[in-house]
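Help! Submission page says 'invalid entity' but I think these are all valid:
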Amino acid sequence: MNIQFRDRPEQASSVHAKTAIADCDIHPARATKTELYPFLARRWHEHLEIYDKHPYQGMMDGPPYPKAQPNASRRDAYPPEGGPQGSSLSFMQQQHLDPNNVVLGVLNPLATGQGIRNHELATAICSAINDWQIDKWTGKDSRLKGSIVVANEDGASAAAEIRKRAGDANFVQVLLLSRTVEPLGQRRYWPIYQAADEAGLPVGVHAFGFGGNPITASGWPSFYIEEMVGHSQCQQAVLSSLILEGVFERHPKLKMIMIEAGFGWAPSLAWRLDRNWQRLRSEVPHVKRPPSEYIRDHIWWTTQPMEDPERRDHLFDVIDWVGWDKLLFATDYPHWDFDEPSRVLPPGVSDANREAFYLNNAMKLYGLAGN
Amino acid sequence: MTSPVAGGVDCDLHPAVPHLTSLLPYLNDYWRDQVTTRGMTDLISQSYPPNSPISARPDWRPAQGKPGSSLADMQAQALAPFGVSYGICNPLFGVQMVFSEDMAVAFCRALNDWLAREWLDKDSRLRGSIVIPVQNIEKSVTEIERCAMDERFVQVLMLVMGDMPLGKRAYWPIYAAAERLGLPIGIHAGSAYHNPPTSVGWGSYHIEDYVAQAQAFQTQLTSLIVEGVFARHPNLKMVMLESGFTWLPSYLWRLHKFWRGIRMETPWVDRPPLEIVRSNIRFSLQPVDAPDDGKTLIRLLDHMQSDELLLFSSDYPHWQFDGDLALPEGISPELVRKIMIDNPYATYGRLKQTAIKETTP
């Protein structure tokens, strides 16, 4: 995984040989701290200069668990014109979109207005990020599609932002982060699902964020690896909450995507939920079907970081349980744990499943099939 | 139906303290006075509300009192039907929830003495776990050393959701004492409720808390492995109790992948996580979070790539299965023997396998 990406001559030459792929998790970055200012009211420029973001965590600058490398990104992904990795469209095209034949790239901006304690500021930054996505990315490269970033701790303003962007072809989903103040099935978040449902947009939940809660049920762990591995436990709590609060019962057409949190845990969580729902369903009478059915009908999974067992038959068992029609290929460009498209799936996969995995599931989910 | 073999070990039985006042004979004057004059209430954890369906199987629910509070019931409903030679008692009385470490010390001591007198003295098959006041490491070690003089205590018991991640160095004196005394550390489902039960706060429902126990086990396993507990204490065994185990393979794939990527952060982790689990970690059998078909479970057992990880448990009186179906469908007689006999005896050094020693003709 932690391989160094040196210049590889085959990148340029193999463009036409590679099959088309959808990359459902790309992280665009801002080249400078003030790049967002043109999209923000003046009062917020001053506010940010004086008070900065005031997030649900202690550090003013940078994450509390230091990443393994700067910006958690590939060392070879710095754009030649300067700025952090992922901040240049032309270099993203040259390093990733063109050589890997990405025909659909879904943008998931991080470090936005999410996880900010001042909800008014959060709302302003999220809206600015959405304008910025159109201005810098989706308006300039039609392969790229944006995510409607919303101030997820304030359901009403998040819903308003979704309604404002509904029908705008620059956006293909709503983006939430997984580490929130309360589990994402809770009532404060319901307006988000209502608005997304009305707009016919899937809701992606990307691993990460700050919600003020210790990230394990026994408090704060010590290491970055615990935070990283822990995203899959966090996402299990998120998915349990969504099901047990009846979100999918109220929104039978709502589709959700679990982004960058793995999918190997889905079957065992589904079985555990089912088993306990059989015993305890009188506590949650609004949950009318076995939880595994909601998962099967409503949840899609991005693949990176791809489950990587020693034996490929074990991987195929798990994918069979999750469903070949539910996986969305993702690289996580430009992050360090980038999954190289050509190496992700072992041999032994049918052409139909391979095409579904790399492209067709995403085109169908995002309503882009036939475009 | 998969039949049990005689001479096994039931590694997860829950004798219930009838009421906090049942511990009065085991408390000193000061704490006896505190309990009575302050009108302290019973220590029932909301991890297991007594009337919840998971807290007791319908046919194991007594006419009166808490499920699991009668020795005669335990003998008739768990020890006899599964033909075990030993049963390990893991009391889930909510002593970990109190915030005063002095009070916790007094209650743990009383609870361990209560277990020895009211249960271990009364049935020679029963063995005990030492419940410790984890908020105070020094007193925890003292309590381990005190109880360990009684050979019938075979492990130390901690809850999976506590004050700090279990790998944290502050806890290491507990692990050193356990390793020195030949006691595995049992980590049981349940919470001190000193932290929210999920990484995103408090859910709304009891079912949500119970499902979340499995995620807590996963984060604890990460903590124990990456902090280096088993590099320091290679002979220490830990047993995940009522944890579920079907999450283990995919969890390990993920942990292994990140360990390969960023092992420079924790260079003392000198073996792959999968190897550490194989040598140092065990899991109680119940609950089996898998479909009933048997076929899926066989695949999951293959994903685990070891037949030494599982230890037989009925989880009495909790409701994990019906009738005699303590062993899931589809597993071979060889694996039954491993789960019921070989693996528990290899884990619990203080259990003597005299009863079933095979004689050469």
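Support: the input was valid. A stray whitespace character was the problem, and the output above is from the cleaned input. Chain B has one domain: 8-347.
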